Fold this sequence. Notes:
Mean pLDDT: 92
Strand order of the largest sheet: 11-8-3-2-1-14-13-12
CATH topology: TIM Barrel
Number of strands: 14
Radius of gyration: 23 Å
Structural class: alpha/beta
Largest sheet: 8 strands, parallel
CATH superfamily: Glycosidases
Shape: globular
CATH class: Alpha Beta
Oligomer: single chain
CATH architecture: Alpha-Beta Barrel
Number of domains: 1
Amino acid sequence: MDNDRVVNILQQRSSGILLPVFSLPGPFGIGDLGEPARLFIDFLKKSGQRYWQILPLGPTSRIFGDSPYMSYSTFAGSPLLISLDLLIEQGLLQIEELAPPLFSEYSVEYQKVDTYKKGILKLAWKRFQAGSSSSGTLKAFTLAQPWVVDYGLFLALKGKYSQKPWYQWPLPLRQRQPEALSLATAELSDQIDYYIFEQYLFFSQWQQLRCYANGLGIQLIGDLPIYVALDSVDVWANQQIFQLDAKRCEPALVAGVPPDYFSADGQRWGNPLYCWNTDHPKVKGQLWDWWEQRLRLNFTLVDTLRIDHFRGFESYWAIPAAEKTAVNGQWQKGPGLPFFKEMDRRLDGMSIIAEDLGHLTPEVEALRMELGYPGMKILLFAFDGMVDNSYLPYNLGKNCVVYTGTHDNDTAVGWYLSPAVDSASKQQAKRFANRQDDDAGSFHQDLIYLALSSVANLAILPMQDVLGFGNDCRINVPGTTLNNWQWRCALRFINNDLAAWLREISLLFGRVPLICPDSNAAAFLPEQSAAAAPPRPLL
């Protein structure tokens, strides 16, 4: 990617919407990469937006609470997001084979979706195998995406060993002894090929979707967690680049953050840590090569990457694995500026948004500024009565991305209605928007006004805030594992009236692109009015 283009993309005054792919509407219980995604891209175009920000796309698991930030693979895509309609067009399914059960419009019922979709994908797999070019197609995909071989073997082995984590498998497989891997590959070849087939479908559909978005002038913003799950193919296949106990194949140190104002015990995330400070040049080379592959693949999927927990690249909190809390950790140095300079050189430029929330040291801020990456400013964090609060609209600079909130926050309306939020904070927020009322129902519009009118080059609005929904539509509550990552947006709410309002206010504050490709996006949008929609039940 050309460096000048990278800079220009994030320096143009623009805006976009944050909506996970799984939150899209559709008849199959979860958003997918087919018509639901294209309809939303049409909505973005019609409403004058330039960006669609998503959450990580990897396979999720009930074991990890369905979190997209704790996946079996940082390279793979979730098979639950594969479009069944596109498989019909491809000739791999017939419409009468779908017969979906009744799914909720408002939440993802993961177990129900998983059972249904994987059953349907197995039908597509059988039809694919019957084709004369199936073997060559998978071989070509494997050559283009070599990581998928280990991924397929990893999932096949988890199936064989009752979903136990890899570090509880027989020792030869834990240690990846060549003979054990060879025998397992031969024994489980059919299952491995099926998992490769799933990834072939996902990546084929995603590239079609990205081409569609870019053709309408819509840029995609992805999300890259800094850490990976311990029970993942990433760690199993690359043990040498993580701080693991060589005998037990388990972490010696784990990731987290130290105690702070919000948590007396800190947060113990439990992810294995990278060998950033190794004395072995070979291991360091393998670690940097792995990161290059990870970043390179992500930039084939999206135009810009938000890097989660950016401060961990300057220094990170290392907690002894035996500790139950994060209290007794210590800071260790991250790879810092040389790492990003080298990745930038290898990838010929990177478009990065740095997640720099929380307590930051001057060293972290200096690293971000040296790299020129825009940071994140969250308006819901602004109203504590302190005039020097860096999230207040008048304290923002141009090189940042302003959000009303993120997937980890309450919605704007939910925040305003929460008894846990001080009334003075609510009054301050209203006064910043030049409102004299205490109407919670319009508070999302107040925050959107502040975000779009700010000097920040880019403003991102969670879809729940665009719609003015309450905390029953919240995506995630940090520190909890139940009832997260479930919210879905029903189709009737993504309509022309909403697009017209959003375009008008985006135009007012100079955030609508002056030149965009022509499109007939309006033809794809449902005509019903949000005001006329029937009442929406709580989740």
